[in-house]
Amino acid sequence: MDVPFIYLFGLNEFAVRLPSAIFGILSVLVIYFLSLKLFKIKSLALLSALMLAINPWAIQFSRPAFEANLALFLNLLGVYLLIKGFTDKAYMVISAFAFGLSLLSYQASKIFVPVIILITLVTLRKHFKPSQFKIAGLIFGIFFIILFSTTFIGGQSQRLSTMNFFAYQRSAEEIKTISGEDGLVGLSFETLHGEWFAYIGGLVERYLIYFSPKMLFIDGDYGERHRVPDLGALYYFSVVLVPLGLVYFIKLKSRESLLILLWLCFSPIPAVLSRDLISTLRALNMVVPVVILEAAGLYHLVQVLKHKSKFYLIILFALVVIMVFNFFIYLDRYFIHAPIEYSKYWLYGYSQVIKVLESNNQYKNIVFTDTYGQPYIYYLFYTKYPPEKFQKQASLDQSTVDVGTVRKIDNIEFRHVYWPGDRGKKGTLFIGSLEELPDQDVLPFPEYRVVADINFKNNLSAFRVVEIIP
């Protein structure tokens, strides 16, 4: 998806992020048509689009280049076209392509897509004939075979087996302690204290987190890239609108409202089954039912006030003021405070330090710290390094089942800076953190020269560039 934008605008942040932003905008359009198709109420559909357009959870992942945002659009489009396909099976074929591409776009889709297809077909089964699904099912099956082969035959299954929730078991010491307390061993121990008990408790805890008011309205995700300071995943006014939407949908007792409620219930599952305790990124599909519930809650509230309160317009105006004020609070946190407070977690400083590196390229050897992750990626990106030149020398170091790294490109070595052992390497340029190149080990010595200090936006040190003078 990025390739045509990089061709048009060059290799830069704007070009890489633009497709995600476009699909975020298109999701607003699709959710309008999906809501209209399901509930036949134009004002509810417009409110759904509005709620998605301003939703913090959606904005957080549509402005940067997150694959999950593309998958969200494809899932939305897939459901909408699948429902349209009940009356025109040509749409169902296009739906299969959308779902198939979603499978290949993001890991969470591998679980969520089959689930949402099944939920849609079961809840709206009175509109659906199995014969309509033959061609679409074949197309989706081909995508699934491709996915299966790349995951299990292509060698990615090891990462899958170690990055899921069930790969993390209690330590032998913990099991020994529990066994020692009641003296149980063997089958009796497994019956009362087996891993099944820890797994069930862990899964329930993880699932309920995604419906926790504390996570939704106060703290949000633990990861700084997935949140803004001092706010949750949703607005404060959502704490009223979402329950009102639930009440409205329960009263409707329609298959369409059941679809949205089941979507809400099942969408956290990919996140629940993954390694991390909380991941609003892997649970991004929750955004769709949440914003539709917000819209339904607001629609229901307006209808009730309109018919039962003579102060309808005053209350409605007050509600709009509250929502706008809440939106501006979010914009303040997102555009002003998050870039400063979370610049470290967004790896601010790489572009600046690589500019310093490019203007100091006379060194025979350069050591570039990997304290912040995979620095070779940023070096390739910001220097616009020729792919064909990189591919001839690239050697992936994948010592763990995670994504791995590249340790050397030309004369640049990407590794931890160990100053006690590195300080004697004359004519070498070192790019490290302040912890790796501290003041007391660098500044007092004339044979070391600080070429540059790069700070994060909160003025804490990001990189220090040091030359060992020949």
Task: Kindly describe this structure.
This protein is of the alpha/beta class and about 475 residues long. The protein has 2 domains: about 5-160 and about 195-340, no CATH class; about 350-470, no CATH class. It is built from 23 helices and 8 strands. The chain has helices spanning about 5-10, 15-40, 40-55, 55-60, 65-85, 90-105, 110-125, 135-155, 155-160, 170-180, 185-195, 195-210, 215-220, 240-250, 255-265, 270, 285-310, 310-340, 350-360, 375-385, 385-395, 420, 440, and strands at about 365-370, 395, 405, 410, 410-415, 430, 450-455, 460-470. α2 packs antiparallel against α4 (about 55-60), α17 runs antiparallel to α18 and α19 packs across α20. The two termini are about 45 Å apart. About 30% of the residues are buried. The model has no long low-confidence stretch (mean pLDDT about 90).
Which consecutive residue ranges, at least 5 long each, have pLDDT under 50?
none
Mean pLDDT: 90
- N-end to C-end Cα span: 47 Å
Largest sheet: 6 strands, mixed
